[in-house]
């Protein structure tokens, strides 16, 4: 094993990892069905296709016992009155937890159990948030600069995006009276 | 589940977690057999019993799939010419990895396989170091202020301190010509 490969630098300004094994760029067109205001989605896509978030992942093989990690740079912005957010996912292995460490920016994390009960927690710099097993999780940028965080997860957790793509989260985060507010998702499928 | 309990603050100056589930304080008297210069150990203990490091752990149950994490505040100092260090351990479940994120200070991490082959990597702020499965690991403060880092590990990893307590690491970090230097451990038991 080449142990020098075991050190990864975090660019604390940009959130980029160096090195990384996988980079993901999610534009609005990649997740247009995830926002509740379909007209707002089409209005924006007619003009541009903004980057909602980028992920720099450093992933090990999926052998049990390995850990992987990734930084996410979630841009500030809204689609209609709904804040920019990640797709959100369950783990394919449902009993795998995840740890989030917020580096900069301000936001929320929506944590939802398999029955659809959703809770919303604040993400603030220098805090660690535990995503318990069997909970889907989505992050939301409610601030005016990028929300940057590190996620650490078992390498064999896997990502199950399908349940959320089909059903959504039962709560979404929108701007109301100038403030981020959790409301029931009008498009949520029970 | 009370989701509010899932958020933990890191005091970035002191390294303390709030809340935490377990605090560990390691004084020189708790690890006097770990340093190679036994006379230096006795000379210091005759006058004082310094705190070498403190750990604030936030641990979940040992169910497979859970993750736990801890911050370590490793003080600067030397026992003879050997820098302050942690005891070091294997995981009881040998195939469990660990992720270290260095917050502040400068140091080294010694990573040793089960055959006793040791490698030394730098710990610098804003870097992530991966401790692969089946490797013992010890951190060393080679700077002049506290070395503070976060470790994230599977909750079922367990700590096996015995092998290291009995055999030691094959390499130790001492000051030579004013600089931290890895040398063969004269007390290492093969």
Mean pLDDT of chain A: 96
Please give the order of strands in the largest beta sheet of chain A.
3-4-5-14-9-12
Order of helices and strands of chain A: EEEHEEEEEEEEEEEEHEE
Give the fraction of residues assigned to helices of chain A: under 10%
Return the domain count of chain A: 1
Provide the gyration radius of chain A in Å.
16 Å
- Biggest protein-protein contact in the assembly: A-B, 43 and 43 residues
* Gross geometry of chain A: globular
SSE-based structural type of chain A: mainly beta
Summarize the structure.
2 copies of one chain form a homodimer. The first copy, chain A, is mainly β. Chain A is built from 2 helices and 17 strands.
Describe what this molecule looks like in 3D:
Two copies of one chain form a homodimer. By secondary structure, chain A is mostly beta strands. Chain A has one domain: Jelly Rolls (Sandwich), CATH 2.60.120. Helix content of chain A is 7%, strand content 46%. Chain A is built from two helices and 17 strands. The first copy, chain A, has helices at 38-45, 162-167; strands at residues 7-10, 17-18, 22-27, 51-58, 67-74, 78-79, 82-83, 90-91, 98-104, 107-113, 118-123, 127-131, 135-141, 147-154, 159-160, 171-176, 179-184. In chain A, a hairpin with a 4-residue loop joins strand 10 (107-113) and strand 11. The radius of gyration of chain A is 16 Å and the shape is globular. The mean pLDDT of chain A is 96. At the A-B interface, strand 1, strand 9, strand 11, strand 12 and strand 14 of A face strand 1, strand 9, strand 11, strand 12 and strand 14 of B. Strand 12 (127-131) of chain A pairs antiparallel with strand 1 of chain B, so a sheet runs across the interface.
């Amino acid at each position: 094993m080449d142990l020098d490969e075991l050190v990864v630098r975090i660019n604390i300004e940009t959130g980029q990892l160096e090195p990384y094994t996988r980079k993901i760029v999610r534009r609005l067109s990649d997740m247009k069905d995830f926002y509740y205001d379909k007209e707002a989605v089409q209005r924006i896509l007619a003009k541009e296709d903004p980057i909602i978030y980028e992920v720099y992942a450093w992933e090990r093989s999926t052998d049990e016992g390995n850990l992987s990690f990734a930084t996410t740079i979630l841009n500030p912005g809204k689609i209609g009155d709904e804040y920019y957010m990640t797709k959100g996912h369950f783990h394919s292995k449902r009993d795998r937890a995840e740890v989030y460490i917020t580096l900069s920016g301000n936001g929320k994390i929506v944590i939802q159990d398999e029955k659809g009960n959703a809770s919303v927690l604040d993400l603030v710099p220098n805090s660690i948030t535990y995503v318990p097993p069997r909970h889907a999780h989505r992050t939301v940028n409610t601030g005016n600069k990028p929300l940057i965080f590190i996620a650490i997860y078992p390498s064999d957790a896997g990502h199950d995006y399908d349940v959320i793509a089909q059903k959504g989260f039962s709560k979404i985060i929108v701007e109301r009276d100038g403030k981020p507010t959790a409301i029931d998702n009008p498009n949520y499928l029970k």
